[in-house]
Amino acid sequence: MQPDSVQSGSPTDTVFIAFSFSDGDADLGNNPNDTIYDVYLRDSRYDTPGSTFTGYFFPPIDQTIENPDNGISGTAVFKQLAAFLLPRQDSNHIKNGDTLYFELYIRDRAGHNSDTIKTTNLYLLP
């Protein structure tokens, strides 16, 4: 994940999370008209029981490269705008900034989830 700090709420700062993936039967890329997403992301600051991951879709994947015999692998880059990363709303975090990490996993069309990865810390500057 880069960078390791951003200005909270900044309209110009962006966090990039790059991860490698491999799917043995090459069935990545869920239907964007459905509620089953490809990438699930969770902000660690909201880790109360029942907190959920937010879902996102991969860009369209060319189906001509899908081959269940060969699988599919690559690197994905998830882009998180700092405009949506705000500190917790107590006086300490508003004044001094905040710290978080993300958890992320992917889901294929068969409904199989990957391992969950955890990023390094991200510092939200006040």
Structure description:
The chain has about 130 residues and is mainly beta. The chain has one domain. The protein has one helix and nine strands. A four-stranded antiparallel sheet has the order 4-3-7-8, with no helix packed on it.
Give the count of helical stretches: 1
**Beta strands, count:** 9
- The computed structural class is mainly beta
Strand content: 35-45%
Based on the model shown, name its key terms:
126 residues, 4-stranded antiparallel beta sheet, 3-stranded mixed beta sheet, 9 strands, mainly beta
Provide a compact summary of the structure.
The protein has 126 residues and is mainly beta. It has one helix at 91-96, and strands at 5-7, 14-23, 39-43, 54-56, 72-81, 98-100, 102-106, 117-118, 122-125.
Secondary structure elements and pairings:
Layout: E1 5-7, E2 14-23, E3 39-43, E4 54-56, E5 72-81, H1 91-96, E6 98-100, E7 102-106, E8 117-118, E9 122-125
Parallel strand pairs: 1-9
Antiparallel strand pairs: 2-5, 3-4, 3-7, 6-9, 7-8
